[in-house]
Design a protein that fits this description.
Strand order of the largest sheet: 1-2
Radius of gyration: 27 Å
Number of domains: 1
Length: 70
């Protein structure tokens, strides 16, 4: 017999519906792997954007310095 959860509002143990049960086995592993993969991709994208912004700022300061030296 599967374990039942307790419904405190009604005061009785109830069966959890299938669509509310967490995924088991391979499904959970795939969700976990895809979540980490997505997090890594977003992280690399953020680092790339920070790198490009820093290069842009560096170039603008070099142009400003060249302009002020004249």
């Amino acid at each position: 017999m599967p374990p039942k959860e307790f419904d405190f509002s009604r005061g009785i143990p109830v069966e959890t519906p299938d669509h509310l049960k967490p995924t088991t086995g391979l499904g959970r592993e795939l969700l976990d792997i895809s979540g980490w993969f997505l997090l890594i991709i977003i992280g690399f994208f953020a680092l790339f954007v920070i790198y490009k912004i820093s290069r842009l700022i560096s170039k603008s300061y070099k142009k400003l310095d060249r302009y002020l030296d004249k």
